[in-house]
Task: inverse folding
């Protein structure tokens, strides 16, 4: 388990990864002790069996996944969060698309400049697709949709 955990590429979680095998062993010990206490014909001491280790490893793996999700969340910049919100709004608009003005109306409290930057960034990455729109009355505009 230690080898698998310490081959993590980023190193930001290296100290956390170093403690996970110990935590897995402690959990396996607790599981073995609980099984031992529940037995009517007890042995002298609890014995860690493969089923205890498997369960402990699953628990620790779920903690590892949670650590990665937390790291991704706290590493997300404010612009990344804004882009994510814009992408959700544009995807809900469907094939008819949505204008920059309508995106701004749904994102109260955000400046027009920040919203424009987020939309431009998403368009550059190919996450949203701009297309011209000419309404029956009024000026032509640009709408955005998810490709």
Result:
């Amino acid at each position: 388990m230690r080898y698998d955990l310490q081959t993590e590429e980023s190193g930001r979680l290296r100290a956390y990864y170093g403690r996970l095998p110990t935590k897995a062993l402690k959990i396996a010990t607790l599981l073995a002790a609980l099984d031992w206490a529940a037995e009517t014909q007890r042995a002298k001491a609890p014995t860690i069996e493969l089923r205890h280790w498997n369960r402990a490893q699953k628990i620790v793996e779920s903690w590892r996944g949670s650590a990665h999700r937390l790291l991704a969340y706290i590493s997300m910049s404010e612009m990344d969060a804004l882009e994510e919100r814009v992408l959700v709004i544009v995807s809900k608009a469907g094939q008819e698309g949505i204008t920059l003005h309508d995106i701004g109306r749904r994102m109260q409290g955000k400046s027009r400049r920040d919203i424009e930057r987020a939309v431009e960034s998403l368009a550059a990455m190919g996450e949203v697709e701009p297309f011209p729109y000419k309404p029956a009355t009024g000026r032509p505009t640009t709408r955005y949709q998810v490709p």
